[in-house]
Amino acid sequence: MTITIREALMLPDMVQSKLIAGAAGLDNQIRWVTIVEVLEDTNRLQEGEFLITTGFGLADEPERLARFIPALAKRGLSGVAIHTGFYLREIPEVFISAADEFGLPLIEIPVEINFSTITKAILQPIVNRQFETLAYSQAIHEQIIRVALAGKGLAAIASELARLTDGRTVIVDAFGYLLVETPNGKDKDEEDATHSVPIQTATETYGYLSLTKPQNQWKELDQIALQHAATLCALEFLKERAVRETEWRLQGDFAEEILSGTVTWSAEEDARSRLLGYPLTGSHFVAALRVPPQAQNQPGHYHSRLTNLLNRLAVRHRTPYLLRERSSYLLLIMPEKTDSLHFLERLARQWNNLTPESPLQIGVSRGRHHLPELAEAQEEAVFALDAYPLLAQPPQPLLFAQMGGYQILFPYHRQEESLRQLWHPLLHALLTYDQKYNQQLLQTLSVYLQHNGNGLQTAQALYIHRHTLKYRIQQIEAKAGVNLQDSAQRWQLQLALMAYKLHSLLYPEQGI
Fold first, then answer.
1. CA-CA distance, 82 to 91, in Å (whole number)?
2. 3-state SS, one letter per residue, for 168-192
3. In the predicted model, is pLDDT for residue 144 greater than 90?
């Protein structure tokens, strides 16, 4: 759709013109030709324009003369031609030095050549190329459309693009997974060039389409073909998503029935489940997946990306699951197998690599052999997910069976007051004292219990003297009304501390 300054100078009607300076810009693209006799405002000029002027008024104003070429270079013009013999008898030296400095081609047009001759000479090939490009674009569009309508998917579009351009094509999804790669006609050459364009709609990027071919064979028309193919690939992704969302709705409805505890195994239910790609035989667990609270202002966006990644990995690793979406987390029903846990870890690692600002948290229930028991398994998974910030770090899933004693609090977490009663009688006095006098009795108690009552280890962990620790222990016993030498009371305090931490996490607005 354009020609270069170098190509323009080789046109028959341009042979009498002469390049005076700015040879470094000979390969600048001419997008249009502009004729201005009185140049008052350079801001009206556009990038890529080729300016033809007589230089009227410049010779009488030295300051304007000095600013002329730098101002044109700043606007990104492709070049400037000065018609000498009218107002400038010859090209000023200040123009020549500035043109060389900025790499802006400076051309002298002799007085005997008309403006119209130059304009027609340059615009004709530009217009011809535009018509050629338009015709090629339409032909490419029709050919790729025919392939897309044949219903053979992304692979057929990529193959047609490779055939039309004599290049090699690759399609990857938004997560970087290779979806399509056309066969290589030859080994990759160091001089090959790869151009990539996003496969996207106005709201989402689904992946990237790349075309590779030797650098010296690249044409502007190849870029047009690449863009057409990317548009049709986006339609294929949309079609794939529509099919997948229908499958997810069917899966979600069935998963909801299972999680409600109303489904028992039968040949009919097993056949229904297998149609959805999930076997009901054997033992199952429930996993709850969530992005962190700070990302919940866009739960729909994260859920969409997460389900897409989940599907991509499940297909790749042949991992069955049933999915049910909640407002702030996802629920998965999965076979109770080591492979299922490995899959969840892989999913979390991949997600965290792609979205480090919103790491994935996963809570996993105990396994169940009987389908109605998955209703309780759902609650275990959500409880583990709620306690995740206390007990785990991404990408490691938190298993209900490995919550370090927090499982004891499982029935109590549902109601704020029930959870409060587990810690308030023992710890309220310590918390009040710490807040009033800026002390650390609660932290001291926690570290003391962590070290099984070992005073030396506790003092070292807190970086305090053993006499300071002894004083704090006395204060704790007096204010909480406990004896830390009594193992039963230590156990009660440990449970109270766990309940307090969980209460602070689940009900932060309630205070002490």
1. 8
2. EEEEEECCCCEEEECCCCCCCCCCE
3. no
Query: With the C-alpha atoms ordered 125, 127, 128, 130, is the resulting torsion angle positive or negative?
Result: positive
Domains of the chain (ranges; CATH) run: 3-123 (3.40.1390.20), 134-236 (3.30.450.40), 260-403 (3.30.70.270), 416-510 (1.10.10.2840)
**Burial class for 417, CB neighbours closer than 10 Å (0-12, 13-18, 19+):** exposed
Hey, how many other C-beta atoms are within 10 angstroms of the C-beta on 132? Answer: 14
CB-based contact 133:8 (threshold 8 Å): no
Tell me the residue length of the chain. 512
Place of tokens 């910030």: 389
Token pair, residue 226, equals: 């690449």
Q: What is the DSSP string of 272-337?
A: HHHHTT---SS-EEEEEEE--GGGTTSHHHHHHHHHHHHHHHHHHHT---EEEE-SS-EEEEEESS
Residues 6+ apart with CB under 8 A from 76: 46, 47, 48
The two beta strands, 3-4 and 29-30, are antiparallel
* pLDDT tens-digit readout, 189-220: 557 889 999 998 878 888 999 999 998 888 77
Tokens describing residue 195: 């151009």
What is the CA angle 386-389-391, rounded to 5?
95
CB half-sphere exposure, 496, CA atoms < 13 A: 22
Distance CA 84, CA 87 (A): 7
CB atoms within 10 A of CB 163: 13
Global pTM reads 0.66
